Amino acid sequence: MDLIEQKAAARKAAFARRKEAFANAGPGQSAHLSEVLAGYRGVPLAGYMPIRTEISPLAAMAEAAAHGPVGVPVIQAEATPLEFSRWEPDGALKAGPFGAQVPVVDDYFDPEIVIVPLVGFDLNGGRLGYGGGFYDRTLERLRARRATLAIGFAFDAQEAAGLPLEATDQPLNMIITESRVIEFSRP
After folding, report:
1. Residue 179, phi then psi, degrees to nearest 5
2. Which CATH number characterizes residue 171's domain?
């Protein structure tokens, strides 16, 4: 099986685990995320508008927005880095690509912290996304400009050993789940 087939199989298994975790999830999923972000008050950050069965960072994003800029990703074109537009908890939104909501008014900025959605993760900071490479390109671009903290946010059930990763896959600095915070030392 080649790498593309390995990634497709890993995604299929991870989606199934995430779907089950989502169905069984209770309140307070973002408590650990809120605790971590409290240590970075005022630092520009980006979260995401959850789609399908993604764990929701919205409560933690709303708390952070009271202290500094919070953005959400806006896809510009296929195979390009994401841009992040300023988001407010009660701000006007419109439908964006892939069903995610985006702010009606574009107000782009570069975050220093990026909360990254994912399909699967490993305990080395590896992340399996949807396959478009948007976050890998984005993190590579942001990290070329300055230190950027990439926080994977997921259900515990999305953990997998031996993810099929490539050299272009950007590592996470931290993974936060509904039950724990896992940090990785990165240069």
Report:
1. -125, -10
2. 3.40.50.10420
pLDDT band at 103 (very low <50, low <70, confident <90, very high): very high
Dihedrals phi, psi of 71, to nearest 5 degrees? -125, 170
Share of the chain above pLDDT 90, in %: 86
Report the domain count for the chain.
Answer: 1
Q: Which residues make beta-bridge pairs with 71?
A: 46, 86
